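Module 6 notes. Inverse folding takes a fixed backbone as the condition and produces residue identities as the prediction. Think of it as a translation problem where the source language is geometry and the target language is the twenty amino acids. Below is one complete input and output pair. Work through it position by position during the lab.
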């Protein structure tokens, strides 16, 4: 019988944790009863440096039900690193690992189909939403723009897939070989290969609380994804430079012709517009190059992604392997 681990990254999720636990515990009980998973299966909550009552709730849930495990990170390290810490912990005791959000937007009932796909040989099963009817117009538009941009850059990424996925222990062990500091799991996981499958589901509204991904975080996340898997922004800068050079040569020729012909050269308006336009391109170009240099700088430091402060589990080997 295969052991399942469901990992739930949490950051200030006190409003929703009890309901998340209730639904997941019922789902695991059903899967165990129908002999789809082992009775040793777990739900693993990871606290990403929350400032509310999240960790206390996780502690009480663990005391109530030993099927619940908890990890408290020493500080806030972001959603991707938190998710990664859960994957690296769960691989020590689970045969298959499902990652999902704590806000109940991911469909818990899709877990059954994911396990079926795993039993049919899939090493990675992607949860893909069918619609974005619960998203705002801005979020929907920018999300589609992001996926099109990634596709244009020939990046392997699953359209309309977040971090709701099943991975086998073998796939997670392969994931551990990637050493990027700036994690973008939606782009890294498809690079692993193996047999994959897609399970479509309808994404629900957030059960309670507020989204922990405001606009500036979404933009930063998108930039991380683009710059982590493609150098096309830098080649695009080169193309803009060539176009600007051609335009400049045309302007010089035009200026010389008008001067020789006795016509006055264009005045301040065209001059200032040209200066501001070229200046903006230069600043943006330096900024894009700076992002890549910054990534190289951070990668060269080889800093650890996270530190575990506390692990709540009844399995001693888990604690020893994650010190």
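Target side of the pair, the amino acids:
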């Amino acid at each position: 019988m295969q052991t399942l681990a469901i990992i739930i990254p949490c950051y200030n999720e006190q409003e929703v944790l009890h309901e998340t636990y209730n639904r997941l515990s019922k789902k695991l009980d059903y899967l165990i009863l129908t002999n789809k998973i082992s009775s040793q299966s777990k739900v693993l909550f990871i606290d990403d440096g929350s400032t509310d009552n999240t960790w206390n709730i996780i502690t009480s849930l663990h005391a109530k039900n030993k099927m619940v495990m908890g990890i408290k990170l020493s500080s806030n390290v972001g959603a991707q690193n938190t998710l990664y810490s859960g994957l690296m912990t769960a691989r020590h005791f689970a045969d298959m690992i499902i990652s999902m959000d704590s806000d109940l937007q991911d469909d818990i009932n899709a877990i059954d189909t994911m396990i079926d796909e795993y039993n049919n040989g899939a090493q990675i099963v992607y949860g893909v939403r069918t619609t974005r009817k619960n998203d705002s117009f801005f979020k929907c538009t920018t999300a589609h723009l992001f996926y099109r941009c990634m596709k244009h850059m020939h990046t392997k990424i699953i359209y309309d897939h977040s971090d709701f996925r099943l991975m086998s222990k073998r796939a997670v062990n392969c994931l551990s070989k990637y050493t990027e500091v700036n994690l973008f799991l939606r782009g890294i996981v498809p690079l692993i290969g193996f047999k994959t499958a897609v399970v479509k589901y309808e994404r629900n509204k957030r059960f309670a609380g507020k989204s922990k991904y405001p606009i500036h975080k979404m933009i930063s996340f998108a930039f991380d994804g683009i710059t982590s898997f493609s150098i096309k922004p830098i080649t695009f800068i080169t193309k803009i430079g060539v176009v600007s050079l051609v335009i400049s040569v045309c302007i010089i020729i035009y200026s010389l012709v008008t001067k020789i012909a006795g016509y006055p050269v264009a005045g301040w308006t065209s001059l200032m517009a040209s200066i501001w336009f070229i200046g903006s391109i230069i600043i943006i170009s330096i900024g894009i190059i700076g992002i890549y240099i910054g990534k190289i700088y951070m990668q060269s430091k080889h800093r650890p992604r996270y530190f575990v402060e506390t692990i709540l589990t009844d399995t001693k080997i888990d604690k020893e392997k994650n010190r």
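Reference fact for the lab report: The two ends are 28 Å apart (CA to CA).
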